[in-house]
Structures are given as C-alpha cells and as structure tokens.
C-alpha cells in the first residue's frame, strides 16, 4: 500500500488527463497537490526522464523554446495501467501506532519529566495549526477547503487523544515506571 504522496504516479495521472510539457505539469501539480511543498523543476524533469526510461511516458513532439527545447510528454499504455492500479489501491489507514507524539509522552514519563507540560505545549501547537487551516479553508477554493478539512479532522483526533492521555497520566506513569 502507498503511504505517502507519489510524485511519479501523480505526474502520470496528470499526463493521462492530457499530454503536457514539464512546465505545465509542475504548475498543475503545485496547484492541486503541492500545498506547502511545491515541486522543483529539477524534480519534475528528473521524474519525467525516469518515467520515459521505464516506458511509462514518451515524448510526442519537441518545440523550440527560449531555453531548452520544450518537450510534450504523453503517457503510454504501461503508464496508464500503473495509474489505474494506483488509483484503485487503498491508502494504508492512518494513524500508525508508533507516533512521535506518543513516544514523547512515554519518554517524558520514563525520564521523570512532565508529560502534562509537554501535552499542554502540543495542544497549543495543534490549536495554532487548526487556526491556520481554518483561515485557509475560509479564504481558499474548494480544493483548499477539502485539504484543510483533512488536516483539521486529524488534528481534532489528536486533541481528543491528548485530553484522554492527560486524564490517564497517573495510571500511565505507574505502568511506564513499573515496566
């Protein structure tokens, strides 16, 4: 199962929609998928080169440009088959049971530090991030709103976990120290 964003498969999907130049692929990727992490042109062209080497895209035509020639990329049947398989494969459900948040709480308890102080700091960081995502949701388009909702729902679940953990800290402290 695919756990993180796959740049090659996403670019292939954009090419299945329509043949494109690398510049157009970067623009579309950044518009829909690159929130906070746009692709560099180097990454786009290196990925296209690997996809061409692997027979998943071909160059349909080359146009002269101000700099290097502009190549239009077209997805092959092999590339389209891979996109289809990827789009029908479920993403591994989150969250994973080994998280940094959990590790910090347990280590704080093991080391005799205040897990509650840490959880208060984390709660405040989550609330600040939730405010930022809410602002994005209010000011953005539907794509922005849906991405913000995804983040907000995960942060809400984390906040619920933080509150539950604070309520169980005495018992957790005893269990961790007795281990």
TrEMBL record:
Signal peptide bounds: none
Q: Matching Pfam families, A to Z?
A: PadR
Every Transcription regulator PadR N-terminal domain range: 11-83
PANTHER family the record matches: NEGATIVE TRANSCRIPTION REGULATOR PADR (PTHR43252:SF6), TRANSCRIPTIONAL REGULATOR YQJI (PTHR43252)
Protein name as it appears in the record: PadR family transcriptional regulator
Tell me the organism: Dactylosporangium siamense
């Amino acid at each position: 199962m695919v756990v993180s964003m796959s740049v090659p498969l996403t670019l292939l999907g954009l090419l299945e929609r329509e043949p494109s130049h690398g510049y157009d692929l970067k623009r579309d990727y950044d518009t829909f998928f690159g929130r906070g992490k746009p692709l560099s042109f180097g990454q786009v062209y290196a990925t296209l080169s690997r996809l061409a080497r692997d027979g998943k895209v071909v160059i349909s035509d080359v146009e002269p440009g101000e700099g290097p020639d502009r190549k239009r990329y077209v997805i092959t049947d092999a590339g389209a088959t891979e996109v289809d398989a990827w789009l029908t494969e479920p993403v591994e459900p989150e969250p994973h049971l080994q998280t940094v948040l959990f590790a910090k709480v347990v280590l704080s308890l093991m080391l005799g530090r205040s897990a509650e102080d840490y959880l208060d700091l984390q709660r405040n960081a989550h609330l600040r991030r939730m405010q930022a995502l809410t602002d994005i949701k209010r000011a953005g388009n539907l794509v922005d709103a849906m991405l913000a909702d995804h983040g907000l729902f995960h942060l809400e679940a984390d906040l619920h976990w933080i509150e539950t953990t604070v309520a169980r800290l005495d018992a957790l402290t005893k269990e961790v120290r007795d281990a």
